[in-house]
Specification:
6 strands, mainly alpha, globular
């Protein structure tokens, strides 16, 4: 299907089903139940899942295929966001031009950064990209304040000179972002028993874009260009000896990766038209590295899983507090209840980073292939059991057959 082999088609269909049915899958607990706080099926969080999934998919094209570890990809995310907001301010509240311009501007900026940074490899390349990201943050935070909004960030205003649209609505408010008239906030709720499912147009727009981005990533991975990128990661010297210059391939991968980041930045402002300098800070670049490694660098679905896991912990685990823990363990004797809460509390709420660090450490030590490798090991475990059971059955039936 769509030029994919059977295995990739199956993977793509699984991702499609998971994405389209996310409002159901991420709301497993009834409203009002004690576990409802673990539900993640609300629009803002689902949008973050797919947007950061796009960001991580693009980063994986560079890091997973070529092995070049960039610590500056947040700069492209931020540049794409600023370009998107400016399009919303100057042209139209339709998100399509904003997203397109975000991708183009991020691509051009990544071409400049990549051309300079790829003159070095290894740790020097990583430091160069980190330096570019920090310079971009400093420029956005202070030097380019008239363009970026500085400390307060770039946001829409009532006097924006919007060419294709109005600057303000009849009630004096700022128009909402839309997709050819359909507002990003549009949607409906479905109540089934004790469950309440929310279907938001903005989420589904992001989901469709992510599916397209995922499909393009599969085609890149399976293409001759993808094979060349893997060769860059494997042995650049051997490529040079065969007469192939790896630089154009790595630069192309860097630019494609930057355009994915710009796409994620454009979608962010399409959902929430605000861009701030903190989006370009080095911690944001480190976050996408964590997402990719946690999910499985070099795999197709790994970065998406990693992005979902980190955003889930950031938005759900971080909200758990001491009172919730006391409610959970209220059945225990007072002394034991306080002890259990005291042991668990440092790992949730504001301490969710500690939990993330432990998980990341365990994954790196025991699962170098990330969550994908974990799933593969579990799958092989069941396969071995089935094979062993078949062997036992065959061994048991063999004498009777001989008889």
């Amino acid at each position: 299907m769509l030029g994919l082999n059977a295995r990739d088609t199956t993977l793509f269909l699984i991702v499609m089903v998971l994405t389209l049915f996310a409002p159901f899958l991420l709301n497993p607990f009834p409203e009002g139940s004690a576990l409802a706080q673990f539900n993640a099926g609300y629009p803002d969080l689902m949008q973050r899942f797919v947007i950061f999934g796009i960001f991580a998919i693009g980063f994986n094209i560079l890091f997973g295929l070529t092995g070049y570890l960039s610590f500056g990809h947040a700069a492209f995310l931020g540049v794409g966001s600023y370009a998107g907001v400016w399009m919303l301010k100057l042209l139209s509240m339709n998100v399509v031009p904003a997203i397109i311009v975000s991708v183009i501007v991020a691509g051009l900026f990544s071409l400049l950064v990549g051309y300079i940074s790829l003159r070095r490899s290894g740790i020097y390349f990583s430091i160069l990209t980190l330096a570019f990201a920090q310079m971009s943050f400093a420029l956005a935070y202070s030097v380019l304040t008239p363009i970026t909004g500085g400390e307060t960030g770039l946001q829409l205003a009532l006097d924006d000179p919007r060419i294709l649209g109005v600057s303000q609505t009849a009630d004096g408010s700022i128009p909402l972002t839309n997709f050819f008239g359909i507002e990003m906030r549009d949607g409906f709720e479905l109540a089934l028993g004790g469950w309440l499912f929310t279907f938001n147009f903005g989420y589904y727009l992001c989901a469709v874009v992510m599916l397209v981005a995922f499909y393009v990533a599969i085609r890149i991975f399976r293409s001759p260009f993808g094979m060349m990128l893997k060769a860059v990661k494997s042995n650049q010297q051997r490529m040079l000896y065969t007469g192939l210059n790896p630089k154009p391939y790595t630069l192309a991968a860097f630019v494609i990766s930057g355009m994915y980041a710009g796409l994620a930045g454009g979608l962010m402002v399409a959902m929430d038209p605000l861009a701030g300098a903190e989006r370009m800070f080095w911690t944001a670049s480190g976050e996408v590295v964590l997402m990719t490694i946690l999910g499985g660098a070099g795999t197709l679905i790994g970065p998406v899983l990693g992005a979902g896991a980190i955003k889930y912990m950031e938005n759900i685990i971080s909200k758990l507090n001491e009172n919730i823990l006391h409610a959970w363990f209220a059945m225990l004797p007072d002394g034991l209840e306080d002890f259990v809460v005291a042991v668990i509390y440092p790992f949730i709420g504001k301490g969710w980073h500690l939990t993330l660090g432990i998980v990341f450490m365990l994954v790196v030590i025991f699962l170098p292939g990330g969550m994908v490798e974990g799933g593969q090991r579990i799958g092989r475990l069941f396969t071995r059991r089935k094979t062993a059971n078949k062997d036992k059955a065959a061994a048991g039936s063999a004498p009777s057959a001989a008889e």
